[in-house]
Amino acid sequence: MEIAPILKSQTVQNRVREVGINPNYWYPTAWADEVAPGQVIPVVIWNSAIALYRSQDSQIYAIEDACPHKGVALHKGKVTGENLTCPYHGWEFNGNGVCKSIPYLPKGQKLPCATARSYAAQERYGIIWIFPGTIEDSEKVELPLVPEYDDPKWLTIPIPGHFQAHFSICNENTMDVFHGYLHKNLQGWFSPVLISLKASEASVLAQYQVSYRGWMTKFFGFSEQGNEVTTRTVTIRYNYPHYHSSLEGVSSLYLMRQPVGAQLTKSFSLLFLKIRLPQWLVKPLQKQIAQILWRFVLKSFLDQDTEMIESEQRTYLANPQRRYVEINPAIIALQRVIVGQYEKFMQQSKKLSYGNNGNQVSSAGGVK
Q: What is the pLDDT of residues 316-330, one digit of tens each?
């Protein structure tokens, strides 16, 4: 559906700051190099605690971070081959969450039916992904496509983000190109104009014209002459629950969110640039160049955004009844998608809880 890109006053629906996620998508949980073979770490996706581990043969597994025996956090245990061992009594669970060994049981004795929930997990683009919905549903959903990742013409810059805020606030920051005012001291963009806007049940596509000027924009290839104003088109595509932003083939940003809880969001972003340096210099020093650009240039932008995002969250918590006015229709469209996806999941869950005749189905499969 095409929406007129007209800036006009609209009231923000505050419930967007309270909704949960639709778990039937892949969510990033860790950088791949953070989990070595034989290592286990705790991760959380919307209040669900998960023990993420890599087996000795480098396979990734994710199971509920609670031992079915006593509820002890399994991430405090250790990896034994392909299994995860609870630190309390030494019970071992495989990647499907099934108990495979209890050290103090006599050999040959039948094991109890003790199973921790398992999650579909995979590694791609240097990121470990988990599907918090059912494993069966995970087979129907693909990861975001990142074609630049294996293209040697692009310099890859991993960007971590950590925000004490609801994921909706973080997502609005990404869609809101008008906040270039915040970055004016960093040679950010200016004079933004929303030129087109489309939305569907699960996506928002917005295009803005933005202007650049300064040595930094020349270095990144945004403009030919750093002392002249260059105007380009930024395309921002939000496919729930992740983003892709591109600048006329000059840069490409994939921004993936990990909603930890109602007041904590993490981001795993991949920025691709074609910087103006000889390839013979860039290729052997890619990681070092990426780290320098992140630490001394890009992090300053993110720090400014983080301050605004967390300020917005604190003000909301102080008075959830406060009403706000928005004039960017792209933000309103984004909020509708976020709320709509949560409501869609809740409706699907309600249908699964009831039989086709409308009777409630118990967890044991009976009808109430």
A: 999 999 988 999 999
How many domains are contained in the chain? 2
Pairing of the two strands 83-85 and 230-239: unpaired
Domain contains 296: yes
112 and 165 assigned to the same domain: no
* Burial readout 259-290 (b: 16 or more C-beta within 10 A, e: otherwise): bbebbbbbbbbbbbbbeeeeeeebeeeeeebb
* Chosen domain end from 138, 164, 193: 138
How much is the average pLDDT of 171-183?
A: 94
User: What's the count of helices (H) and strands (E) in the chain, helices before strands?
Assistant: 7, 19
The rounded distance, in Å, linking the Cα atoms of 12 and 355 is 37
Which one-letter amino acid corresponds to residue 305?
A: D
Is residue 53 in a domain?
yes
Domain span at residue 80 reads 27-138
Summarised one tens digit per residue, pLDDT across range 54-106 is 999 999 999 999 999 999 999 999 999 999 999 999 999 999 999 999 999 99
